[in-house]
């Protein structure tokens, strides 16, 4: 049976919820009028747009997100950016790490600055819209995934009343050091779901050991199946299979696997299997 719309009463992890979170992450790339119309079709009766500018190591950028609410659910989705821009930010090693929320560890400077520019808007919207003890959700793709993960950490560590019920990220780069990743895992590891599509290159930057991912992984392998983890040898073999899937352009696989549509399509198929 096709999956029709959000389940506003959901409380835990499911592939269906992952699919709709990927749809919301994709929607964040759209103009405000499209976001509002679609969100209302999904059952959200309140929508607020967030947009600010900030200056990473390169030219002025903007951060965009939207928060939507119903009687049962508050959802914030952050817009992503193209892999080239993320690589530009990450190539600047002259800026020190940014202190993590509530003094826990450190965050990559570029991601922290992007979130800092929009965090007050997001915090106020979530706090205002959560007027019926609704569940709280964050999602995003690419840069949007980094911001979703960090926003959930910052809201909880700085205001424990705002613990996210679910954080779904797609093609998310590493955002923080080991100390903050461990603090996250101790506080709400089971609520965060980081999806990686096979050879997605953005999920492999910035490099370890300075930066780390949080622990929970949802890996979409080269055949479109979902795995909770990937053993080292099996993972290398599966990545190699993905690299050779396009004989005419094998080196493009890491960028192609990063596209938000790839995540949406894979999770749509998986959600139909689950249904």
Offer a concise description of the structure.
It holds the Pfam family Lipase_3. This protein has 275 residues and is an alpha/beta fold. It contains 9 helices and 10 strands.
**Structural class given helices, strands, pairing?**
alpha/beta
Strand content: 15-25%
The termini sit apart by: 6 Å
Number of beta-strand segments: 10
Which architecture does the CATH hierarchy give at level 2?
A: 3-Layer(aba) Sandwich
| Approximate shape | globular
Output the number of helix runs. Answer: 9
Trace the largest sheet across and list its strands.
1-2-3-6-7-8-9-10
Quick one: CATH class? Alpha Beta
Q: Calculate the mean pLDDT score and round it.
A: 86
- What is the CATH homology-level superfamily? Alpha/Beta hydrolase fold, catalytic domain
Helix content: 40-55%
* Number of domain units: 1
Major β-sheet profile:
8 strands, mixed
* Radius of gyration, in angstroms, nearest whole number: 18 Å
Low-confidence stretches are 242-251
- Order of secondary-structure elements: HHEEEHEEHEHEHEEEHHH
CATH topology: Rossmann fold
